Amino acid sequence: MTMTRLRKGMALAVGAFIFYTAAAGAFEGLIQRACFLALVTVLGLLLHPLGEGRSWRPLGAVVDLALAAVTIAACGYVVVNYDEIMTTLPWATTLDMILTAGLVLAVLELGRRTVGIIFPALVALGLAYALGGHLLSGALGHRGFDLAFVTETIFLGDLGIWGMLTGVAATVIAAFVLFGALLLHTGGGQAFMDVAIRLGGRQPGGAAKIATIASGLFGMISGSAVANVATTGNFTIPMMIRLGYPRAFAAAVEAVASTGGQIAPPIMGAAAFVMAEILGVSYVTIIVAAVLPAVLFYVSVFVTVHFVALRRGLAVVPEADMPAWRDILALRRVAPILAALAGLALGILLGRSASTSAFYGVVGLLVAFVATSLGRVPAREMAARVLDGLADAGRGLVIIGVLLAGAQVLVSMINLTGIGVTLSSLIVTLAGSSVVAIALIVAFVCLIMGMGLPTTAAYVLVAAVLAPAMTAAGIDPLAAHLFVFYFATISVITPPVCVAVFVGSGIAGTNWLPAAGEAVRLGAVTYVVPFLLLLYPGMTMTGGLLAILDAMAAGLALVIAVPALLTGVRFTGRRGLDLVLLPAAIALAIWPHPVSPFLAFALLIAGRQAGRLHGKAVV
């Protein structure tokens, strides 16, 4: 009980720190980041104790105390010596080296406990490469750096562990995680689920469509595929199984739909804020550019589910399980959500920072929640919900904070050694001037990296090394970064390490392998959509109205034709005609000509109408 209270108290402290700095403004750069990292690291050590439940837990407790102590000491040292660090560029002392080693060890060990060995191993490899690169020959070798210089880079400045990624995590991302957690804890979660049930339940494959809609709505706030599966999947997967859907299919639908939440604005699994900082553009620019690909993702999943439902005769949701619209749209249900979104939009329109805009959203949410709950919900329960939201935000920031701090260390070593430029040059040399070849190489690396790392971390590391190769080939930087991010995202449904599928299969009580196969089939078109970013400038809402319409037509043609072809649904009513018309539409959609996307779309409409006239199409 004492440990439970300590964990919740620490989580509340992290949430309170986020709330205060979002309201009053962040502290000076290194001070904000050091306080944030100290808080989330200590909380992480409490939530993920070494050796819990084992006989050697007392030894683990000693290790945890030591890691917590060195973390607090290192972060406190930076806070106390902030002025000196930022103005005099101090030389590294023995104490600095000890504190740096301890802090990095704490971050990497916590990363190992939360996401596995691959991430800390990559960071350790980057550090080893910086220290021992002089031992290598050829293009990968460099002059090498001593321990003092590496310490100065990592610890005594704002390029290492206190760099941009940690800064974004400590301010913007933290504020939006708080916004999302409070929204879900004050009734937004159930409201999203009820809307999804009402919109999708009475259509063919209704329960699968509920999973698609609900996961999209949840994902826009949570931004984590795995958390999304665990949250919405506990409701949608049992519903699908109860209605007779195959278990593997139920798990796959939830996994694929939840994956899209990471690419759906406004939060995008924290990547929107990181991307904005890397590219030096506004947050609004990123979310506007991400809208069309995200819409295409969910249209593709929805269409695929529809076609599969028609082929397999999947059941609709019984009317008795459908919530009434009057309950869904009751003021007490929608007011907090609308007020939260209004506050967020107001901050953006007024030109406030992203974290301040998120704070406006939180204020609107809390005011509306209290106003609509007075006299209906006891004050103690209202306070408990808000405190639970604060604590949940604190817990949610542990992985984000630790991963981005660790990634920042690796990125600083990549920049220090120049390995990113070297690898980009090698890729350009290998692929020549072929944009397609470079894109395929980058996509493959993203899928591999994403299998062992959380999406945001995979995006950051691949973008640091490989995005320059894409821009060197003439690809727009924003399109290149979105391309990297999308492939890092869909890695969570790509075998053999498909984390979202693992979670969904566990809930469904089925083997993960058939579920993974279903997920790849359901999400097949999502492996193609990112390439449209490279073919059509309008995919990022740039290039003018005609370019945007061109991209929309190409995307819609693809997300209809590819699922129709793969599911074998009778699109025109004649299978032979389908096998001619659908590949032709796909080819026209990916042929980057101003007219070809419209021809592809027109071809699909004509084929569909022909099937209806003959009464043979089932779509």
What report would you give on this structure?
This protein is mainly α. It contains 27 helices and no strands. The protein has helices spanning 2-24, 29-47, 57-80, 82-88, 94-115, 118-132, 147-154, 164-200, 206-222, 225-242, 247-260, 271-279, 283-312, 325-328, 331-349, 354-373, 379-417, 419-431, 435-452, 455-472, 477-490, 499-508, 512-522, 529-535, 545-567, 575-589, 596-614. It is globular. The mean pLDDT is 84.
At a glance:
The protein is mainly α.
**Main sheet overview:** none
**Fraction in beta strands:** under 5%
What is the CA-CA span between the terminal residues? 57 Å
SSE class: mainly alpha
The counted number of beta strands is 0
Please, what is the average pLDDT? Answer: 84
Round the Cα radius of gyration to an integer and report it: 25 Å
Keywords:
27 helices, 619 residues, 76% helix
Ordered list of secondary-structure elements with their pairings:
Blueprint: H1 2-24, H2 29-47, H3 57-80, H4 82-88, H5 94-115, H6 118-132, H7 147-154, H8 164-200, H9 206-222, H10 225-242, H11 247-260, H12 271-279, H13 283-312, H14 325-328, H15 331-349, H16 354-373, H17 379-417, H18 419-431, H19 435-452, H20 455-472, H21 477-490, H22 499-508, H23 512-522, H24 529-535, H25 545-567, H26 575-589, H27 596-614
Helix pairs in contact: 1-2, 1-8, 1-17, 2-3, 2-8, 2-17, 3-5, 5-6, 5-7, 5-17, 6-17, 8-9, 8-12, 8-15, 8-16, 8-17, 9-10, 9-11, 9-13, 10-11, 10-22, 11-13, 11-22, 11-23, 12-13, 13-25, 15-16, 17-20, 18-20, 19-20, 19-21, 20-21, 21-24, 22-23, 25-26, 25-27, 26-27
